[in-house]
UniProtKB/TrEMBL annotation:
Domain of life, per lineage: Bacteria
Protein name per Swiss-Prot or TrEMBL: SDR family oxidoreductase
Matching InterPro entries: ComplexI_NDUFA9_subunit, NAD(P)-bd_dom_sf, NmrA-like
Pfam families for this protein: NmrA
Domain NmrA-like: start-end pairs: 2-176
Xref: SUPFAM superfamilies: NAD(P)-binding Rossmann-fold domains (SSF51735)
Organism per entry: Amycolatopsis albidoflavus
Amino acid sequence: MAEQILVTGGTGQLGRVVVERLRAAEAPVRALSRRRRSSEGVEWTAGDLRDGRGIDVAVAGVGTVIHCATDYRREVQTVRTLVEAARWSGQTPHLVYVSIVGVDKIPMGYYQAKLAAEKVIADSGMPHTILRATQFHSLVRTILAGAARLPLVPVPKFRFQPVDVRDVAARLVELAQGEPRGRAADFGGPEVRTTEDLARALLAASGKGKRLVSVPVPVPGRIGRGYATGANLAPNHADGVVTFEQYLAEQGKPTALRYR
Ligand SMILES: NC(=O)c1ccc[n+]([C@@H]2O[C@H](COP(=O)([O-])OP(=O)(O)OC[C@H]3O[C@@H](n4cnc5c(N)ncnc54)[C@H](OP(=O)(O)O)[C@@H]3O)[C@@H](O)[C@H]2O)c1
């Protein structure tokens, strides 16, 4: 029988799609959440990566962990907890970690924590695969939606390569079912686009007929420079297929995975 795969963050935007994909493929899947959950075809387990409660039970007997949970304030600590629990389980599962393109070049707090977490995994001595992805469609939409409510839309001279969580989930599952790779090739959305162009797409999708009158905004400092130089992009790995427009058109439709 195939070894069980643990998906941490099984309720998150990415994790829930990974869980659904594994379930649809009839792979034995266990999913972690801080709360008690239940859903068909998934063994839910409750645990908290901040204090370690329930994590030993979550990792017990699994052959692979796809780590989709994220704790925006304690990323390194939570990854350490996971690695330690995996080590103590005596199973040496394949750890698959999802990170972000540019974490080594853009000095934002969360990115620095992701980079440090990558190192915890790489130095753990456990079989592992680290996949850096570009910004999810939902994040780009959230960033632009606030700006789009203003009469003049401020648009930094950045480019994004938004990617769909379904594309990232498919890649993660593929990596999880293969040999550990260390750092895998980056994974990007199908198109590199300017902020202005994406804001225009968002306005068009809103159907309110609002026209974009953009105001360029310089973003100073090393973070601004990181984005301005395209450190958040993976143009040679435009592997995702779902475009920003396709994603916007689907908003409001129900997602497949339901849990209580
Ligand atoms: N958003 C992006 O643009 C982007 C781009 C590239 C990579 N990524 C990476 O993709 C990963 C998934 O992101 P996402 O947007 O899907 O996250 P998300 O929707 O914010 O979900 C976070 C998940 O983490 C779980 N969680 C939070 N704190 C926890 C804790 N202390 N113990 C156990 N579970 C905990 C939550 O589960 P419960 O609430 O059920 O406990 C939830 O399922 C992250 O590592 C992120 O850095 C994101």
